[in-house]
Amino acid sequence: MFVLDTIAHRLKRGCETMAYPSGPAPALPDRHGGALKVDAAQCADGCDACMPVCPTQAITRPAGKSVALDLGRCIFCAACVEVCPQKAITQTGDHRMAARRREDLVLGESGHEQIRLAEALDKKLRQLFGRSLRLRQVSAGGCGACEADTNVLGTIGWDLGRFGIQFVASPRHADGLLITGCISRNMELALKKTWDAVPEPKIVIAVGACAIAGGPFIGNPEIRNGAASVVPIDLYIPGCPPHPLTTLDGLLRLLDRVEEKPHKSRGGA
Question: Counting C-beta atoms within 10 Å of the first and last residue's C-beta, which end of the chain has fewer, N or C?
Answer without folding.
Answer: N
